[in-house]
Amino acid sequence: GPCTECSCSFGKEPDKDPSHTKKKENGDQLCVPKIFFGTRTHKQITQISRELKRTAYSCAPMTILSSRDYTCIHPVVSNSSNRNEMCVELLEGKHGKSCSYYHGAHKLSEHHALQPVQAWDIEDLVSLGRKLRACPYFAARELMVGADIVFCPYNYLLDPQIRDSMDINLKDQVVILDEAHNIEDCARECVSYGVTESQLRAAREELDFMVSNNIRQQHHEPLRAVCCSLM
Questions:
Q1: How many CB atoms lie within 10 A of CB 153?
Q2: Which of 2, 125, 148, 190 has the fewest CB within 10 Å, making it most exposed?
Q3: How many domains does the structure of the chain reveal?
Q4: Torsion over CA of 52, 56, 61 and 66, rounded to 10 degrees?
Q5: In this structure, are 205 and 94 located in the same domain?
Q6: Cβ-Cβ contacts under 8 Å for 126 (sequence gap 6 or more)
């Protein structure tokens, strides 16, 4: 029978939640937020995805964002010490070569094994990528568009440069940080930079040259003063 506490007892249409029915001023429908789950290490992501498989939410659309160190399968780039730079050079075709794995990323992101059936981890993604000769790194980024849960290391959420490069927008999203007592150290690392004395000396010499030749003196003199004070 009708409830006594709500509008249906009076034969009226119950008020619908405006957050689900109204449109924004620009005409876009309000979207269900994504869950960004940040962890300290890549290894912990594997553990969490294993636990996700055991829950009722195992079939939720998901993806795992990780560095090229873990997901690059290009035979040359993956064995290089500067994978990021080599990958960018291949994508830009600087040396007249391109990456066939990158161009096959859609085959991996659309594969049935990664669709909402069961949770997977980085090893599953890389293994399937090798089989399909498709890039796991960019496939994982493509999967983020339709994912409900996005797993990634802390710095992907804290570092603004990484967020920008990975097209991560945290506005109106849900952010979960596992072992959050490590956040202070990670945040400090995101805005810190290490420099050697020899690098400072080289920078000072270049700035000396700029200042002595009256090249944008007003900009280079303060920088030279910083180098000298640090040394």
A1: 22
A2: 2
A3: 2
A4: 0
A5: no
A6: 70, 71, 73, 136
Check whether 170 has a pLDDT greater than 90: yes
Q: Measured between alpha carbons, how far is 149 from 152 in angstroms, rounded to an integer?
A: 10
For residues 139 and 204, membership in a common domain is answered with no
The SS3 call for residue 64 is strand
- Domain of 204 in residue numbering reads as 197-230
Instruction: Indicate if the alpha-carbon torsion angle 106, 108, 113, 115 is positive or negative.
Output: negative
* Residue 172 backbone dihedrals phi, psi, to 5 degrees: 65, 20
213, part of any domain: yes
- Within this chain, do residues 39 and 139 fall inside the same structural domain, yes or no? yes
**E-strand spans in 74-204?**
149-153, 174-177
Its pTM stands at: 0.71
* Report for 28-42, 176-190, 209-223: range of highest mean pLDDT: 209-223
